[in-house]
TrEMBL record, chain A:
One of its GO terms (biological process) is tRNA wobble position uridine thiolation. Keywords: ATP-binding, Coiled coil, Cytoplasm, Metal-binding, Multifunctional enzyme, Nucleotide-binding, Nucleotidyltransferase, Transferase, tRNA processing, Ubl conjugation pathway, Zinc. Residues 6-33 form a coiled coil. Its main location: cytoplasm. Binds 1 zinc ion per subunit. Its cofactor is Zn(2+). Gene3D superfamilies: NAD(P)-binding Rossmann-like Domain, Rhodanese-like domain. ATP binds at residues 77, 98, 105-109, 122, 166-167. This is Needs CLA4 to survive protein 3. Pathway: tRNA modification; 5-methoxycarbonylmethyl-2-thiouridine-tRNA biosynthesis. Residues 339-438 form the Rhodanese domain. SUPFAM superfamilies: Activating enzymes of the ubiquitin-like proteins. The lineage of its organism: Eukaryota, Fungi, Dikarya, Ascomycota, Saccharomycotina. It comes from Saccharomyces arboricola (strain H-6 / AS 2.3317 / CBS 10644) (Yeast). Zn(2+) binds at residues 208, 211, 286, 289.
From TrEMBL, chain B:
Belongs to the URM1 family. This is Ubiquitin-related modifier 1. Signal peptide: none annotated. GO terms for cellular component: cytosol; nucleus. It comes from Saccharomyces arboricola (strain H-6 / AS 2.3317 / CBS 10644) (Yeast). C-terminal thiocarboxylation occurs in 2 steps, it is first acyl-adenylated (-COAMP) via the hesA/moeB/thiF part of UBA4, then thiocarboxylated (-COSH) via the rhodanese domain of UBA4. Pathway: tRNA modification; 5-methoxycarbonylmethyl-2-thiouridine-tRNA biosynthesis. The gene is URM1.
Length: 440, 99
């Protein structure tokens, strides 16, 4: 049995012990109760502070929460704050879909997990945390990647879906499946210091993701948190707002009469602001929720809707094998004693990445700056005065993607002949050659 | 001629010298439409021609960017044909995907 498994069993045991103690307590205190209450005495105590907020509808509202079944797709930056608030509020069943494991680089924002759980499935870690918070919640975990063939089976039976995922592909899939099953989606996203939130397919009358975005963005315009970075509390606030919207949906605050399609935009910097934009309604010509629907359950499950093709992907592999160095070749040729003459190492990462850590013998020219030189060797010589057409140039980036783009620019636009990039980039070098360098 | 406020949100400020809010005067005979404003942005405000494709694709706003006129989806306001008035706020926000 692995450490994680035994820890998970231990914490389950602890939760069961707690529940058992609570049940005994309830049983003991029930002896002289004649009236049948819809909630246990412990639940009255637990939810009292929210039940006395008039907008929740008191006990009736609490019973609605107890009967609610919510599915959270993604236990990351958005899911981590949304999940405990839903559990704390007393949502009866919470499903969690995520097949990723906790990594150290997640923990600055994914605060439902912790340092001891690095390597554990995120859905399992989240389940343990929220079960400890509220043992009344029935938590179901799905350690799978959502796809066209499993989505319907997972979604069926849930009242609302929270889209806490991180790519256009899953966002289209979640919206399409929810429309076909008649489920309302609370959808949000975040990057850097900003976040966005909306409600999709409200009561089968509101707009869906495709109404807002009939055409997906070009793949090179899609930035992930890994690539673009994200401030923990900024995305956390948006995840918290998702929980607020979900509670309002369960409690019936939104009605067909008062619901107006919206998109909220939160900005954390420089001044915090929250804007609510009035959005288009459902579009008659929407392929998923419009009049002539082609994105049906059958079409999705049969794989006729090709989400990969629709959303596309970036093609980084623009270099030939002989244009690339392995990290050990790079080490031997450029980092050792017998360094090649007339050679230059260009690190093409953004400057604020380069500042975190870099090789001292490199020069930083971000790939965007290199592109903006438009192949003018004089502009490059402003940075590297002695570089010439016969120079040996090695290009380095974080993972070995941008360095390929830079290699193409240097060879095809500037006309250098001896340019090679480093496969796997700076991080691969750190992993394989020198683990004392800070990796971020 | 019309004086409006233009905002670039969701990371789009990256191609406008990191400035999110701009006061813009479109010096053209009335009526000035949002379409005219977009042409003005492309021709005078995007300093680097390589960046135009981040904002425009096939003569229109790039998919994934939502355009708002006074905090309302431009689809509800006539899109490019909307006639601007002094003090209008036109916002462009790139859709975020991180989670």
């Amino acid at each position: 049995m692995s450490d994680h498994q035994s820890r998970s069993i231990e914490s389950e045991l602890e939760a069961l012990r707690l529940e058992n103690a609570q049940l005994r307590e309830q049983l003991a205190s029930r002896k002289d109760i004649t009236q049948d209450y819809p909630l246990s005495l412990e639940e009255y105590q637990r939810y009292g502070r929210q039940m006395i907020v008039e907008e929740t509808g008191g006990v009736a509202g609490q019973v609605k929460l107890k009967n609610a079944k919510i599915l959270v797709v993604g236990a990351g930056g958005l899911g981590c704050p949304a999940l405990p608030y839903l559990a704390g509020a007393g949502v009866g069943r919470i499903g969690i879909v995520d097949n990723d494991v906790v990594e150290t680089s997640n923990l600055h924002r994914q605060v439902l997990h912790n340092s001891e759980r690095v390597g554990m499935l995120k859905c399992e870690s989240a389940s343990q945390s929220i079960t400890k918070l509220n043992p009344h919640v029935n938590v179901v975990t799905y350690p799978v990647r959502l796809n066209s063939s499993n989505a319907f089976g997972i979604f069926e039976g849930y009242d609302y879906i929270l889209d806490c995922t991180d790519s256009p592909l899953t966002r289209y899939l979640i919206s399409d499946v929810a429309v076909n099953l008649g489920i309302t989606v609370v959808s949000a996203s975040g990057l850097g210091t900003e976040g966005q939130l909306t409600i999709l397919n409200f009561n089968n009358m509101g707009p869906c993701y495709r109404c807002f975005y009939p055409t997906p963005p070009p793949p090179n315009a899609v930035t992930s948190c890994q690539e673009g970075g994200v401030i923990g509390p900024c995305i956390g606030l948006v995840g918290t707002m998702m929980a607020v919207e979900t509670l309002k949906l369960i409690l019936g605050i939104y009605t067909n009469e008062n619901f107006k399609p919206f998109l909220m935009l939160y900005s954390g910097f420089p001044q915090q602001s929250l804007r609510t934009f009035k959005m288009r309604g459902r579009k008659d010509n929407c392929l998923c929720c419009g009049e002539n629907r082609t994105i049906t359950r059958e079409a999705i499950e049969k794989g006729e809707i090709n989400y990969e093709l629709f959303c596309g992907s970036r093609n980084y592999n623009v270099c030939q094998p002989d244009e690339r160095l392995s990290v050990s070749e790079f080490q031997d040729l450029y980092k050792g004693d017998g360094c090649l003459e007339n050679s230059y190492i260009i690190d093409v990462r953004p400057s604020h990445h380069y500042e975190i850590s870099h090789f001292s013998e490199t020069i930083n020219i971000p790939v965007k700056k290199l592109r903006d030189m438009n192949g003018d060797i004089k502009k490059l010589q402003e940075k590297l005065p002695t570089v010439g057409k016969d120079s040996n140039i090695v290009v380095l980036c974080r993972y070995g993607n941008d360095s390929q783009v830079a290699t193409r620019l240097l060879k095809d636009k500037f006309g250098f002949s001896k340019v090679r990039d480093v496969r796997g980039g700076y991080f691969k070098y750190i992993d394989d050659i020198d683990q004392t360098i800070p990796k971020y | 001629m019309v004086n409006v406020k233009v905002e670039f949100l969701g990371g789009l400020d990256a191609i406008f010298e990191k400035q999110r809010v701009h006061k813009v005067t479109v010096d053209k005979e009335d009526p000035v439409t949002v379409g005219d404003l977009i042409e003005h942005i492309v021709s005078t405000m995007i300093k680097n021609p390589n960046d135009v494709c981040i904002f425009i694709e096939e003569d229109s706003i790039r998919p994934g960017i939502i355009t708002l006129i006074n905090d309302t989806d431009w689809e509800l306001e006539g899109e490019k044909d909307y006639v601007l008035e002094d003090g209008d706020i036109v916002s462009f926000t790139s859709t975020l995907h991180g989670g």
